Fold:
Amino acid sequence: MNFIRQLGQFMMMGARAHAKWELNVSNTILRDRKRLIILGLLIIPIIIGSIAFAEHIAEEVGGVLPEILGGHKAYSPAFYNTGIFIVSILIGMGAGLITGCIGAGGGFIIAPALMSAGIKGILAVGTDLFHIFAKAIMGSVIHRKLGNVSVPLAAVFLIGAIIGATAGGLINRVLYEINPVLSDAFITTVYSLMLGFLGTYAMLDFLKARKAAGKGSRTITGGEEGGGAHGGKAEGAELGGLPKKIQAVKLPPIVKFDADLVPGGRGISWVFLVASGALVGLAAGIMGVGGGFLTFPIFVYVLGVSSMTTVGTDIFQIVFTAGYAAISQYAIYGFIFYTLAMGMLLGSLVGIQIGAMVTKVVPGITIRGFYAMAVLAGFVNRIFALPAKLGAMDVIPISPGLGAGLETIGVWAFFIVIGAFSVWVIGTFLMNIGKLKGEEVTS
Structure:
């Protein structure tokens, strides 16, 4: 039981750390005129193309699009209509609202949302990876100038990340070649397990916090919860038992880091860095989440790297891990829906900002409850989609009608919960916009 609790805490720490990265990226892009111009240049052709030329292109050149542009060997072409572009913005905004308001990764819902909207699993994974890569490139902050990036640490870690991402992409593509339904079933199963575990932990955590609040304990706000997610020992020179044991293994070469925090710095064998990178890369390659939600807890609580070094190094590795996985494992095989990715990028940038502002006027306990519901809605969505896929492969005896009915229930449950949450956040923002403006002026 203690192991399950620790694993839940481990995943939540990663989700919150990744949410901080998302918010920093959004701030960097939206507060920089040059980046906004670049974003506009990327979005404008998509809007024009989707309004004026989508159907024409579909009829005239649909059969000869190369794979790298998402041709007909993939699940969807690179062109689409205005309606799908709007849906992609809404999906990105929903994920952004969750990330900004709750302070934990809303990116977990993107692939389930895409699959529920009719995008097949392998394309949803590739598109999500490209969306993360584009966001990372546009919002990169040069932490190297602040001394927050350990280049040796990142370089060795990336060796493992490349191996893991290659393996993850290969697994998805091989399963797709065997049977596209098998590919969908595999990705759905992985998401069901992760969202089920994380959602259950988040709900139990919320119920425990609500019970404590009812007894008069201090209610933790969303900002405090997110900000305190990795405080204390993670910042300083103290190490837990596991990091001490790992750093005591002196299998050369030894990678040095944190010289500015501890006299002489710390050192860790390259084996542990490569293994950690492989795990992160595998998650990125299979799930399309960039692996960022795993990097922070692994670095801080397993390897014993300080939080400051971890944050900068994590940003550095996300660019390369997501970029490598997106391009080498999905783009060249036609499994990226580029225009969909840009719509998601646009929506998430706006959603994160609105969500972050709402945390100033909403109790933290409410935010935690919404997060648990959102993650569990994603779990219900994927677990209800699984029987139809298993039935199509004759793994379980289920009628097509029953399978389709269960899948429809999962889709409706998911979009009702996420839609209601989004309406609530935006409504709260609009009702408190005067108060929020006043706080901004004061600050």
Q: What stands out?
A: The first strand starts at residue 254 and ends at 257. The longest helix spans residues 180-214.
